[in-house]
Amino acid sequence: MLAAEAPSELLRLHAEIERATLTAMIGQYREMLNKSLKEAQWQRFFEKHKFVLSLAFARPVELSHTQFHAQGSTLAGTGAQIGDFLFREQGLALAIVEIKTPDAPLMRSRAYRPPNVFGPDSELSGAITQVLHQQSELRMRWKEHAFDNPTLRSSRADVVRCIVLAGRRPVEEKELRCFEVFRNACKDVEVITFDELLVKLEYLQQHLQPTLDDVPF
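^ thats the sequence. predicted structure below, dont judge the formating
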């Protein structure tokens, strides 16, 4: 067996497979960022590559549901509150991730108070309001959700984190400063941009992939 006869070669092979997988994932992510894609296309990418979204968290997470219903619809099919991703953290906490697109504007193009104060774009403020509403509905209907979904019974609705993935970091210093001030004031919702997620992937590629020198002979 290769594992018994040549453990260093097996480790080397495993490292190369992991390297190729991560490199391909980053390449696909970069390629998608350069296109004007719809939200549904990003939804499918993250469903396939759950690992990428997990980088938005400080603690280990497990994907529980995609396109989940925080609030049921009426008989006419209206009124449903559908969230993009529901994660279970280690412990009891849950997390809702709402995704938009990299092209989603984050700050208004015109200053709210010229020349330095820019307000959040309605796309961002709307996404934040949407995910907070999903959080509220999930808490109010927690017993019903936990009864219908056995995988959620080990979690609790006491802590439901909210994450919004949208847009790209503003380039202009004035807009960037206002963006940072705004998102750091959103204590109940963490706002992450698509390009920041790419930086995390690249950081992993740079620091976590073993080199051939790390493999013992």
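The first helix runs from residue 2 to 5.
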